[in-house]
Design brief:
single chain, eight-stranded antiparallel beta barrel, elongated, disordered N terminus, mainly beta
């Protein structure tokens, strides 16, 4: 099953900045509990992407039923002057395919960068107390502008983040996915623990992972000699719903 995850981290207006991902975000001055990389630093070697066999069953991502969030956390001794961010996408695109075995299944997914949503109140409320509500519209606009600038996601030249399966093993309900993730001009190999369910002809894939911005050549924002920073590690959460390509056709 192939799933593309976009990771983007947006900066705080005038104070803190996010990274790419496909970003997500609440917390205290110190690193939030449980937000530590769960895999070794990604390799920079080329990876072979899986391709669907002619006999595979294809499923198209339904963006109206799918969601992705990137949580970005502030840091440093002056962290109280910034705030954590939740970066959301409601515009995920791509496909999954199912072959006779997991090894012959896969996915390819893209997350448009320029339509990412910064600090939506509903998303912040669902992510908990680390994400207080009612971030000002000026702060949201500043964060998004920073996020898309050339030193971060460079939305004008790199309009999407993509993830493509390279290897799938494990069980049908809890597959272990190795994928290539591309942010800007950097591609890295990542591991994606996911759960899979099926109902009414649709597949639902859910999971989370953590990445370091620096692994993709992005330097997290640091101000006042490091007293106010954006933490290097961000958390990505996703739920993808894909419907049969045959059923989706007119």
């Amino acid at each position: 099953m192939q799933i593309t995850y976009a990771i983007v981290i947006a900066p705080r207006s005038g104070r803190a900045t996010l990274l790419t991902c496909i970003a997500l975000l609440a917390g205290c001055a110190s690193a939030p509990t449980g937000i530590a990389p769960t895999q070794p630093a990604p390799t920079t070697t080329a990876v072979v992407e899986a391709k669907p066999a002619p006999s595979a069953t294809r499923y198209l991502i339904d963006p109206t039923a799918s969601a992705l969030r990137i949580l970005v956390y502030r840091g440093g001794t002056m962290a109280r002057l910034g705030h954590n961010h939740v970066i959301s996408s409601a515009d995920i695109q791509g496909q999954l395919w199912r072959g006779p075995t997991l090894e012959s299944s896969g996915f390819e997914i893209a997350v448009p960068v320029n339509t990412l949503i910064v600090d939506d109140n509903v998303a912040r409320a669902e992510e908990g107390e680390d994400f207080p509500l009612n971030v000002s519209e000026d702060a949201k606009a500043g964060t998004k502008a920073n996020m898309l600038r050339p030193t971060l996601l460079y939305g004008e030249h790199f309009p999407e983040i993509s993830i493509r399966a390279t290897r799938i093993t494990g069980s049908a309900t809890s597959p272990e996915v190795v994928a290539s993730m591309r942010i800007k001009d950097q591609t890295r190999e990542i591991r994606l623990p996911v759960t899979l369910s099926e109902a009414h002809g649709a597949l639902a894939v859910q999971g989370s992972l953590e990445i370091r911005q620096s692994d993709f050549g992005i330097a997290p924002l640091s101000l006042a000699m490091g007293a106010l920073t954006v933490q290097d590690t961000v958390k990505i959460k996703f739920r993808l719903v894909a419907k049969s390509a045959t059923a989706a056709s007119p």
